[in-house]
């Protein structure tokens, strides 16, 4: 098995891809079901960005940015 050194040989986008596959197309709510993801299961460092909201441009590699549309459906997830 090959040695993987985080940050050097691994793809940091992988964590973002995991959250993207879990969240895109769902709404955020209080409990899980077919169309909703429970807010309490999001990582501690996250923010929800709505179309009409402002956000800072600071980069925090551990933070998950969740972009939702006007109806609250997750459209994109990125780290930073």
Automatic annotation (TrEMBL):
Gene3D superfamilies: Trypsin Inhibitor V, subunit A (3.30.10.10). Keywords: Protease inhibitor, Serine protease inhibitor. GO terms for molecular function: serine-type endopeptidase inhibitor activity. This is Proteinase inhibitor I78. It comes from the Eukaryota. Belongs to the protease inhibitor I13 (potato type I serine protease inhibitor) family. It holds the Pfam family Inhibitor_I78. It comes from Melanomma pulvis-pyrius CBS 109.77.
